[in-house]
Amino acid sequence: MPNSQGEPSPKIRFEDVVKQFGDNVVLDHLNFTVDRGEKVTLIGPSGSGKTTILRLLMTLEKVNEGVIWVDDDPFSHEMRKGALTPASEKYLRQARRKIGMVFQHFNLFPNMTVIENLTEGPVHVLGRSKDEAVDRGRKLLDMVGLAEKENAHPSQLSGGQQQRVAIARALAMDPEILLLDEVTSALDPELVVGVLNVLRDIAHSTDITMLIVTHEMQFARDVSDRILMFDKGRIIEEGAPEQIFTEPRNDRTRTFLHAVI
Ligand code: ADP
């Protein structure tokens, strides 16, 4: 949606966001934006607040101060008021529907087959017909290279295959924003490549806005339009992958990259 100057507004905007757990200030007056369709990767040492950013967007946590905007909606606002009313619950549900998240642990429904995992949300939440949901589910399974597994149960799949199903399941909800939180860090090394290849394809072939937390620096370099380097709840450097990975300006970025690459 254009703003008053006629420029398109960002897809996501963190405005002076403070998040603390007790005395621990995890995000310290954080400001950043993500444009529509942009792929942004958050890097930085463990504990620097990256996952908290994704959890705030999923409304799994509340901000203490500031506002998170999605499109032109003050997305975090209803949660700040304290007790949720039915109206604000409804608002949050609708706002959250724009966002899909894939976690480190895949959290598939264990009692359902792969295709049932993919159709449950579209049928029960989006009100799609069963046929339509199955059709789309099959296309997505094909895209993640698991067309032949539609009737398998999650326990019959490798971790990498389960994670690819989790990615397909997130996409089945047609998210405008996809959040990826360390999606390969629980996998055996030989399974990581397959998952990253699927995500690379999605990043290059869709206009979904993506916010990614990963330690896979080559992957970050391949898919990101922009990298944000975090330390202690602040962005200490941001830029295009080429710049960040080849000529970081900040000493702490340099030290971090030396340690992880
Ligand atoms: P990162 O993803 O960069 O590793 P996190 O966002 O997971 O960092 O964590 C940032 C800080 O917030 C850490 O100090 C962590 O211990 C703290 N933290 C995260 N979640 C909680 C929670 N639910 N309760 C208390 N502290 C938390």
Describe this structure in words.
- This protein has 261 residues and is an alpha/beta fold.
- 39% of the residues lie in helices and 23% in strands.
- The chain has 10 helices and 10 strands.
- The strands form 2 sheets. It has a 6-stranded mixed β-sheet with strand order 6-7-8-3-9-10, sandwiched between helices. A 4-stranded antiparallel β-sheet has the order 2-1-4-5.
- Strand 4 and strand 5 form a beta hairpin.
- The protein is globular.
- The relative contact order is 0.16.
- The model has no long low-confidence stretch (mean pLDDT 92).
- It binds adenosine-5'-diphosphate.
- Adenosine-5'-diphosphate binds next to strand 2 and helix 1.
Question: Can you give the mean pLDDT?
Answer: 92
Low-pLDDT windows of residues:
none
Please tell me what the overall shape is.
globular
Biggest sheet: strand arrangement: 6-7-8-3-9-10
**Global Rg:** 19 Å
What is the CA-CA span between the terminal residues?
Answer: 39 Å
Biggest sheet statistics: 6 strands, mixed
Q: What ligands can be seen in this structure?
A: adenosine-5'-diphosphate
Q: What is the H/E string?
A: EEEHEEHHEHHHEHEHEEHH
Helicity level: 25-40%
- Strand count: 10
The structural class is alpha/beta
**What is the beta-strand fraction?**
15-25%
Number of helices: 10
Summarize it.
With 261 residues, this protein is of the alpha/beta class. Helix content is 39%, strand content 23%. It has helices spanning 50-57, 77-80, 86-96, 114-124, 130-143, 159-172, 189-205, 217-223, 241-246, 251-260, and strands at 12-21, 24-34, 39-43, 65-70, 73-74, 99-102, 177-181, 209-213, 226-231, 234-239.
